[in-house]
Amino acid sequence: MAATHTTSTRDPLPAGTAGLEAWKTLVIAHSRLFRALDVQMSDEHGRALGDYDVLVQLAGAPGQSLRMCDLASAVLLSPSGLSRRVERLERDGLVERRRAEGDGRNIEATLTAAGRRLFRRLQATHHQGIKELFADEFSEAELDALSELLARLNPEPAPAGC
Q: Tell me: the pLDDT tens digits for 28-76?
């Protein structure tokens, strides 16, 4: 009689395990916090958190400008979502798009003066929201420990290039 091979159907993370519970808590907290920060941004400035995400990436870039492909890698949006968002920001005079100098195949997004002014207002609101909704819930030691633990999940930065 031939031996039969059976594949185990055992769940590697059974319900109630510390790993699964920690994951669920992280996902729920992330969703709740991002939703609350988005509502705060919308209520105070009529802007989505995704707008701030694009502006903060541009504000921190050399020359406050990034190739669209690099911006897409940096933000929490899909490439098509980013394209629509940048189009709206451009229409509002907050961002300019143009062909990259030295490589006409790439398009760059650049923060305008109006974009810089809005960024500073959004940044103040965002930082206040992070303080109130997140940081104030923990001691300094807990925040240090949390930062250290979560840093394990962050991969090395991806190499630049589009």
A: 999 999 999 999 999 999 999 999 999 999 999 999 999 998 899 899 7
CB of 56 closer than 8 Å to CB of 119: yes
CA atoms in the 13 A half-sphere facing the CB of 112: 13
Please write the tens of the pLDDT for every residue from 92-133: 999 999 988 777 778 899 999 999 999 999 999 999 999 999
Catalogue all structural domains in the chain, each as residue range(s) with its CATH number: 33-150 (1.10.10.10)
DSSP for 129-143 reads: HHHHHTGGGS-HHHH
Neighbouring CB atoms inside 10 A of 73's CB total 17
Query: Hunting for tokens 């940044």 — which residue is that?
Result: 123
CB contact at 8 A, 111 and 98: no
Four-CA torsion 98, 99, 101, 105, nearest 10 degrees: 160
Distance, CA of 90 to CA of 97 (rounded, Å): 7
| Cα four-point dihedral sign 146, 148, 154, 160 | positive
Assess contact for 98 and 104: CB atoms under 8 A: no
